[in-house]
């Protein structure tokens, strides 16, 4: 399939998973059952296919059957970002599907590299649509303002997004004192009506300080 066709199919699959999630209401008991079923499958898969977890389980005398509920997770040592960076290749499964490479923002330290296949992107995007809807952000049409993550991040042009709902995202630099960038941010905030504010905590805090100081207009 062509690139555009792939994106359409990916979007339709995402919307369908989101629709099912929003219309599937489990009681607490059923939700815990589903969570624990998925947890057991994940533990078994990790033990059989991920080198890091096979070595970790063997070292601590853990077998998949020891982890049957969420409460059992305390038996597994906590994973750190440093371990992910140092042993990145040991976290890849034996049969790795085609993946997209991305990184964390690095706002709390060195960025961490992540891989996501098509299936994980579909489920993640469906979850994003669902929680945005619960916060009052409709599926279509709402403008989004996203403050840049760090002062070193280059300015980005506005663009439409379709995988996590149909929205146009605008970027504002909350760190810069450059008059051109400040004017750009002022114009964006002033022209948008009731935009949604989405971003990492540190960037939103920086934007709030700029608004509080009168450098940028209120949302």
Task: Give a brief description.
The chain is of the alpha/beta class and 219 residues long. It contains 7 helices and 6 strands.
How is this structure best described in words?
The chain is an alpha/beta fold. The protein has 2 domains: 3-92 and 118-122, no CATH class; 137-212, no CATH class. It contains 7 helices and 6 strands, in the order ααααββαβββαβα. The protein has helices at residues 3-22, 28-49, 51-60, 81-86, 118-134, 179-191, 201-212, and strands at residues 99-103, 113-117, 140-147, 159-161, 166-172, 196-197. The strands form 2 sheets. Strands 4-5-3-6 form a 4-stranded mixed sheet. Strand 4 (159-161) and strand 5 (166-172) form a beta hairpin. Helix 1 (3-22) packs across helix 5. The radius of gyration is 21 Å and the shape is globular.
Could you spell the SSE succession in H and E letters?
Answer: HHHHEEHEEEHEH
Query: What's the tally of helices?
Result: 7
In order across it, which strands form the biggest sheet?
A: 4-5-3-6
* Main beta sheet: 4 strands, mixed
Tell me the helix content.
40-55%
For the termini, the CA-CA separation is 42 Å
């Amino acid at each position: 399939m062509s690139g555009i066709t792939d994106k359409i199919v990916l979007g339709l699959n995402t919307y369908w998973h989101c629709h099912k999630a929003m219309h599937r209401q489990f009681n607490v008991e059923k939700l815990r059952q589903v969570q624990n079923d998925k947890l057991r499958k994940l533990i078994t898969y990790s033990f059989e296919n991920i080198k890091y977890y096979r070595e970790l389980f063997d070292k601590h005398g853990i077998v998949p059957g020891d982890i049957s509920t969420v409460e059992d997770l305390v038996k597994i040592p906590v994973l750190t970002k440093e371990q992910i960076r140092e042993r990145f290749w040991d976290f890849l499964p034996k049969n790795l599907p085609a993946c997209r490479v991305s990184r964390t923002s690095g706002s709390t330290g060195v960025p961490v590299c992540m891989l996501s296949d098509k299936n994980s992107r579909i489920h993640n995007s469906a979850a994003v649509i669902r929680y945005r809807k619960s916060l009052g952000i409709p599926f279509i049409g709402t403008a989004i303002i996203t403050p840049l993550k760090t002062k070193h991040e280059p300015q980005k042009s506005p663009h439409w997004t379709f995988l996590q709902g149909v929205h146009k995202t605008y970027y504002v630099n909350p760190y810069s004192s450059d008059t051109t960038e400040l004017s750009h941010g002022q114009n964006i905030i002033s022209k948008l009506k009731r935009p949604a504010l989405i971003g990492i905590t540190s960037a939103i805090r920086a934007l709030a300080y700029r608004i509080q100081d009168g450098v940028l207009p209120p949302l």
